[in-house]
Design goal:
It is a multi-pass membrane protein. It is found in: Cell membrane. This is Histidine kinase. It is built from 17 helices and 18 strands. Helix 10 crosses helix 15 (about 525-550) and helix 12 (about 415-430) runs antiparallel to helix 13. It is an alpha+beta fold. The relative contact order is 0.06. The chain starts with 5 loop residues before the first helix and ends with a strand. The longest helix has about 60 residues, at about 5-65. Strand 1 and strand 2 form a beta hairpin.
Length: about 600
């Protein structure tokens, strides 16, 4: 791939902004979408955990109400207060514990220890067991200063029963322990423990999370796990770094969220009279952003398809745009090798098509200018050779004239020296200035020298005047265009009998043209002949120089002497300036001729 080509740059600069803009748009869209998803997920899960908090709080409140049966059951309270140890007392205790056991299906077993009779009773699956002489089970005694204590999840046991019931299977429970006191004092009458199946908490927790993707923890104040979707963690201490880092937030806020380790955590405190638990939900970012990532994948597929279409369209467009440029470069290479007649085909109507059209026009103009320059050079050489009659060695003649001029000064004949100097200037102008165009100043100097010779020839029977502004002296004109006009005056206009002949040259300029006007008071041209002459001059000049251009070098070698006339001037003007140049003839009153040369600026 050529990085310097317009086609490559066009493809790159068309595709690169599209990729950058689409990529930036997708990145911004994904960022905003993920942020919105996270915020929405946090809000939804906060509401969900709050609902879970209400359900768990209801469960704990119901459990606390059931434990207060020890006070509301007057018979049970009386037995505990009196410490009776008889059949009636045992029946009362069995009936009361059985009522507590059956109050809700979530209760696994109920334990009661009477302080006065020092008897322990265990009600499990409607089977009562009672034993005497034992101390209250250690876990059943609430901490000092507390009458109610909620024990975290643990495996069920028989509270020190000396003869366990083998058919009873153990399972995970959490326990409410209550000290039954003699009201209004704090003297203990007994200790009541109610084991609640963990399944009661599990039923509520499973509604709060997706066990396949998410995790849920219920912990107590010291970080023991009461419930978790991972059974092996239940009853264990929470040892996660994120938990330790946010302990302070857990204790200060009822509800909140944080993000760490590519997971979103939402928590809710359960602050009850007999429990201070914490619900924590962990949502992996991968699961949280599952829908957003699916949308990104769809967008990436659409982006790939769109990019493929864009690249294909860009390449086709760039080829279509640059193909005419390449073709134009091929045309230029052909011109560089010298083929100026290369066929330039049209390339449409757009800017490149206009450029190709201008190039074709330029080549036509160059070919036309080359042809004109060739004709002009051939015409100038023809005029010079005809003026010198093509027979005299110019250098020899020029040297001879200088010798004669020196001899005239030695013999003190200055008039002869002046004439020879004028002739030498004319020869030098013709021989040494090889340019096809000269300044108007140089052309006027040549005319002045020519006039010096004619004054001597015609014994000063005419006067010559030139009026040209200084700013026009540097205007470029074809070489030897004024002398033929002056020469016509002496051939056809000046009478040999007149002594007051006049010829005057003026130059002026407007916005578009330079005008050179030559007037004389010689013989006028008959009107019919004047019109015919004007048409003939133009027709003869064009025909003559077209023929010379086709003849080429053969014309240079075999020139036929001919009179240098107005047709020569007009033809060379048109070779240089085109059809805009003109030569006009008109008669003056009462006598004379005016010739007007009109040259485009």
């Amino acid at each position: 791939m050529n990085w310097n080509s317009i086609r490559t740059k066009l493809i790159v600069f068309l595709i690169l902004p599209i990729i950058l803009s689409l990529g930036a748009g997708m990145f911004i869209s994904y960022s905003l979408t993920t942020q919105s998803v996270k915020e929405r997920a946090v809000e939804q899960n906060k509401n969900l955990l709050y609902q879970g908090y209400r359900n768990i709080a209801g469960l704990l409140q119901e459990l606390n109400r059931i434990s207060l049966t020890a006070y509301s059951d007057s018979e049970l309270y009386r037995v505990l207060n009196a410490g009776h140890d008889d059949v009636a007392a045992n029946s009362t205790i069995y009936a009361s514990l059985n009522s507590i056991y059956k109050s809700t299906p979530d209760i696994f077993q109920v334990y009661l220890f009477g302080v006065k009779d020092r008897k322990a009773t265990l009600m499990t699956q409607t089977t009562p067991k009672r034993w005497q002489g034992a101390a209250p089970y250690a876990d059943a005694v609430p901490p000092e200063g507390r009458s109610v204590f909620l024990q975290s999840t643990h495996e069920s046991h028989f509270y020190g029963l000396t003869s366990p019931i083998p058919e009873i299977k153990h399972e995970q429970v959490f326990t409410l322990h209550r000290r039954i006191e003699r009201i209004p004092s704090n003297e203990p009458l007994g200790f009541l423990s109610i084991d609640v199946k963990l399944s009661s908490l599990q039923d509520i927790a499973e509604q709060l999370y997706d066990s396949r993707q998410e995790r849920l923890y219920v912990t107590d104040t010291v970080g023991n796990i009461i419930y978790s979707g991972q059974e092996e963690m239940i009853g264990q201490a929470m040892n996660e770094d994120w938990y330790d880092e946010h302990l302070e937030a857990f204790s200060q806020n009822e509800q909140g969220s944080f993000e760490i380790n590519h997971s979103m955590f939402v928590y809710q405190r359960i602050n009850q009279e007999n429990a201070d638990w914490l619900i924590i939900k962990e949502i992996p970012e991968k699961h949280l952003l599952q829908e957003a990532n699916r949308s990104v994948m769809i967008n990436l597929i659409m982006f790939g398809l769109a990019l493929l279409v864009i690249i294909t369209a860009t390449v086709l467009i760039s080829i279509r745009v640059t193909a005419p440029i390449k073709r134009l470069a091929d045309y230029m290479n052909e011109v560089k090798t010298g083929n100026l007649n290369v066929a330039v085909l049209p390339a449409g109507k757009d800017e490149i098509g206009m450029l190709t059209k201008r190039f074709r026009t330029m080549m036509e103009t160059i070919n036309d200018l080359i042809l004109r320059e060739y004709k002009l050079e051939l015409s100038s050489k023809t005029s010079q050779l005809k003026a010198l009659q093509a027979q005299i060695n110019p250098h020899f003649l020029n040297n001879t004239l200088q010798i004669i001029g020196t001899l005239a000064l030695e013999l003190k004949v200055p008039q002869i020296y002046t004439l020879i100097s004028a002739l030498a200037k004319m020869m030098h102008y013709s021989m040494h200035n090889s340019d096809s165009t000269v300044t108007l100043k140089d052309e006027l100097e040549h005319v002045k020298a020519y006039m010096e010779l004619q004054k001597e020839r015609f014994e000063n029977r005419f006067s010559y005047a030139s009026e040209v502004p200084d700013h026009l002296l540097h205007v470029k004109v074809p070489k030897l265009i004024l002398q033929p006009i002056m020469e016509n005056y002496f051939k056809h206009g000046l009478s040999v009998t007149e002594t007051d002949g006049r010829i005057r040259l003026q130059a002026s300029q407007d916005e578009s043209y330079v005008f050179i006007v030559i007037e004389n008071n010689g013989a006028s041209i008959p009107p019919g002949q004047l019109k015919e002459l004007s048409l003939e001059l133009q027709r003869q000049a064009e025909a003559e120089f077209d023929a010379e251009a086709e003849a080429g070098e053969s014309v240079r070698k075999e020139l036929i002497p001919a009179t240098i006339g107005l047709h020569n001037v007009l033809a060379r003007l048109r070779l240089v300036y085109g059809e805009a140049a003109s030569l006009e003839l008109e008669n003056l009153e009462p006598a004379g001729v005016r010739i007007i040369l009109k040259l485009p600026v």
